[in-house]
Amino acid sequence: MDKYFSKILCVIAILMVSQLTGCYKSPEIAAEKPPKSTVANNVLDIDVTTNVKMALMNDPILRAFNIEVITNKGDVRLIGIVDSQSQIDSAMLIAKGAEGTHAIHDELTVKRSSL
């Protein structure tokens, strides 16, 4: 009977060890960070926002306007007031060209002229 229990204990020990080693993650895999919620080509939303803002600031005409940039999962919203429709069109083109953008939503308006 002792041989029977020792065999059962041996089998249980082997099963436990095999289960534990199946759950083992190598240090490289364990060190990986979980994916963040923001991805258009694996670029973080904060990076997309920065890319769009920098691109708008590099435009000599658009830098004069306070255009707010909000990014959610690569979708960019442009919010603000500009002087003309051509400036809205330029802002949209510039934002589309920025790295990481997925879609651009235009919430820009043309300033009313006071007569």
End-to-end separation in angstroms reads 105 Å
Beta-strand share of residues = 15-25%
Average pLDDT taken over every residue:
81
Biggest beta-sheet profile: 3 strands, mixed
SSE order, one letter for each helix or strand:
HHHEEHE
Helix fraction bin: 40-55%
* Strand arrangement in the largest pleated sheet: 1-2-3
Q: Which spans have pLDDT < 50 for at least 5 consecutive residues?
A: 33-40
- Summing up helix and strand content along with how strands pair, one would put the structural category as alpha+beta
Annotation field: number of helices: 4
Beta-strand segment tally = 3
Shape: rod-shaped
CA-atom Rg in angstroms = 28 Å
In words, what does this structure look like?
It is built from four helices and three strands, in the order H-H-H-E-E-H-E. With 115 residues, it is an alpha+beta fold. A three-stranded mixed sheet has the order 1-2-3, with helices on one face. Strand 2, helix 4 and strand 3 form a beta-alpha-beta unit. Helix 3 packs across helix 4. The longest helix is centred in the N-terminal third of the chain and has 21 residues. The radius of gyration is 28 Å and the shape is rod-shaped. The termini are far apart. About 7% of the residues have low confidence.
Layout of SSEs?
Elements (H helix, E strand, L loop, with lengths): L1 H21 L4 H5 L13 H13 L10 E5 L2 E8 L2 H13 L5 E8 L5
Parallel strand pairs: 2-3
Antiparallel strand pairs: 1-2
List keywords for this structure.
115 residues; rod-shaped; single chain; three-stranded mixed sheet; 45% helix; 4 helices; alpha+beta
